[in-house]
Design goal:
The protein has a 6-stranded mixed β-sheet, with helices on one face. The protein is globular. By secondary structure, it is of the alpha/beta class.
Length: about 250
């Protein structure tokens, strides 16, 4: 469990202390990644977050061959577990690159069929106590289907916006838009980390903002190291992570 306070200048005063649970990179399989996911769900529910956001990669694209159908079949059992998550303002999700390169329609349908809203280049208003902010979600950047302009076009320029973007390094593009906070995953924090050394491997668009909190100009970025694994079912010095974020007005 990682708890962080995040201070945003434009955050509505009436929403000071709003809490968000961030989960990412599930890469569901019934042998390894299922265990941190099962452990995370009651942990999150016991925290009673105001909102739960899921930052993509529910399945794992195959390393070799053309077995996308089998890989995408993990979407339903993953969504079955995520269906148990509960928050006052619901559970919202975006897709990641592994979802995009297997079967994004099947992954999105599995989530939506279980009451989880999937944001694909769109935004929704979250309202409470006469105040609101906007939650935006973009489609996958590596898959070249992200459309930030479409996602943000309905949002009044003076209202706070939180963006879900799977790949954290997309922040270098987002910083030119009126977004206050970007929440991401994708990097796995390197997954295997040796003391005093940089991560052995980081994916494309996950090399700069690897884990935790960053400032990119006026934009705040938070990257989760996620729950699951890719290539090898192994994490070392980089444990699975549930992120509990409290948003403050600064």
């Amino acid at each position: 469990m990682v708890r962080r306070d995040i201070v945003l200048r434009r955050w509505p005063e009436r929403l000071d202390g709003f809490t968000i649970a961030l989960l990412s990179d599930f890469h569901y399989d019934p042998y390894f990644s299922v265990h941190p996911l099962r452990a995370a769900i009651p942990m999150v529910n016991d925290l009673h977050p105001d909102l739960i956001v899921l930052a993509g990669d529910f399945v794992c694209m195959p390393l070799v061959g053309n077995n996308d159908e089998k890989a995408a079949a993990a979407a339903e059992p993953c969504a079955d577990l995520l269906h148990a998550l509960q928050a006052r303002h619901g559970v919202r999700a975006i897709l990641g690159n592994h979802d995009f390169f297997t079967d994004p329609r099947r992954v999105a349908r599995a989530l939506r069929d279980r009451g989880i809203e999937v944001l694909i280049n769109q935004s929704v208003a979250i309202e409470r106590d006469g105040a609101r902010f906007w939650l935006s979600g973009i489609d996958d950047v590596i898959g070249e289907v992200a459309d930030l302009t479409s996602a943000l076009h309905r949002i009044p320029p003076d209202e706070a916006t939180i963006l879900l973007a799977h790949e954290p390094d997309y922040a270098d593009h987002v910083v030119r838009s009126p977004v206050d906070l970007q929440l991401s995953g994708h990097s796995h924090g390197g997954q295997v980390r040796f003391p005093f050394l940089p991560p052995v491997y980081l994916p494309t668009l996950g090399k700069k903002y690897v884990a935790g909190l960053y400032k990119v100009g006026p934009l705040t970025v938070y990257t989760s190291v996620g729950l699951g694994t890719v290539v090898l079912p192994l994490r070392w010095n980089c444990p699975p992570e549930v992120n509990f974020l409290t948003i403050r007005r600064g």
